[in-house]
Specification:
Layout lengths: L6 H5 L3 H8 L5 H9 L2 E3 L3 E6 L2 E8 L2 E2 L5 E3 L1 H9 L6 H12 L3 H17 L3 E3 L10
Helix pairs in contact: 5-6
Length: 136
């Protein structure tokens, strides 16, 4: 096999690479996009209040997965009930601040953590995934 010395060519930035480097998005653009993101609740999760507990249960084959019951605190339950395609993360943060009288930074930190947890267990999906949605 003939070996060519292309490595020096690959390491030299060309005009296009320089242009791409200048056009990279600022680090805070992702956060700005996330703030405007709206989510939809996954229909395969059931939300219930039982006595003093609020739970979220994933449903598989029309049966609750009792090995994966998630207990929600008051703020988590409030967020879950207000996750609708028409409410962005920014809207939810404002609603939390109004309902619970917390600082903007506390509302943002709690909301970000909870939304990430819900995404991780696939309890919510981006609202853009449901163009004909009726979750208003």
């Amino acid at each position: 096999m003939k070996q060519t010395n292309k490595s020096s060519e690959l390491q030299k930035p060309n005009k296009l690479n320089k242009l791409n480097n200048r056009l990279q998005r600022p680090k805070d653009v992702k956060k700005m996009t996330e703030a405007e993101q709206a989510y939809k609740r996954n229909e395969n999760f059931v939300f219930r209040r039982i006595e003093n507990e609020t739970i979220l249960v994933p449903i598989k084959d029309n049966v609750g997965d009792m090995n994966c019951i998630y207990n929600l605190n008051e703020v988590g339950a409030f967020i879950w009930q207000n996750i609708k395609c028409k409410h962005s993360v920014t809207d939810l943060k404002k609603m939390i601040r109004s309902e619970f009288k917390v600082t903007e930074s506390q509302a943002e930190a709690d909301l970000d953590e909870f939304v990430n947890d819900l995404k991780e267990i696939e309890a919510i999906i981006p609202a853009s995934s449901c163009p004909n949605c009726n979750c208003a």
